[in-house]
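thought: fold this chain, then report.
action: predict
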Amino acid sequence: MTAPSDVLTAHEAPSAAAVPRRPRRLTARFFARQVLRLAGSLTVLVVASFAMIHLIPGDPLRQMLGPTAPKELVDQRRSALGLDQPMPTQFTHYVRDLVSGDLGTSFFTSQKVTDIIGQGLPNTLELAVLATLTALAVAVPLGLWAAVRTHNGRRRGTETAFTTLTGTAVAIPEYLYGLALLLTLSLGLGLLPPAGLTGPASFVLPVTALAIAPAAMIARLARVETLRELDTDYMRLAQAKRLPAWRLYAVHLLPNTLTATLTMGGLLLSGLITGSVLVENVFAWPGLGLRTVEAITQKDYPVAQAMILVYGALVLVVNFLVDILLGILDPKSSLSASNRREG
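observation:
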């Protein structure tokens, strides 16, 4: 985001010439386009969730009743669950029940799928949100510090160490961080609970495991954005006026580096929601991760389909909100993107 150079506070309230106001009609079209895109993606998700489960090899009823169950019992149970009907008929019933809010009942536990989701989803969301906030709280100051320290080619050693460490941190999967933290801080030193949700201390290990890689990625982005802003005219003017460091960086520099960083943070939140599946299994976290793995391996159709829908819908909704937020924070960028798509 480029700020005018004549007044130090201009970046807080840019002029109409700096950031043109988008016409009301175009704003409505931009929002409508995002809504239509979300609706189309959700439609594809519903079809994919149905097809993916039914294409997995194996017979869920044989797995549920056992290999020695009489064929008559298997056929009777298959008919009762509607699995003997043609695939288009099954899909029609699936969509009808989905629209009415009925996600079905687990083949194995006879528990309502909505109850399963209601029990696990809050814990999964809590874990993902805390990990995102932790990553942002660590990464933004770290990226700003690294940019200021290495600006204009200074301190090559600091730059090399920063890029090497953050690049390595990004490359390691979250579940490996989880295993390492579990073996060292919990099983090795006994400092933190190893599994389950038993209190505030039980959040530390899974949140840390989820936050390390995103924090490294955001820190790299924040450094690049900060380096770009440090070379703008308004920052040169602020430095020439010898403002206090806290005002120079916190008041004038930081707000202009946050648009891309916060956007990345929103996208990472959707990634952490799905990426928490393995971490939840490492720490026996009472979220959706354990039930998702069990449902897929057991071919528990109703539960597995619902989990795919929930995870997919959360990712799509978060991405939709990020697009809208970016349109509000940086309307000039959104206007250019809209014009390119129309062209």
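thought: worth noting. Residues 1-26, 334-343 have pLDDT under 50 and may be disordered.
final: tokens above.
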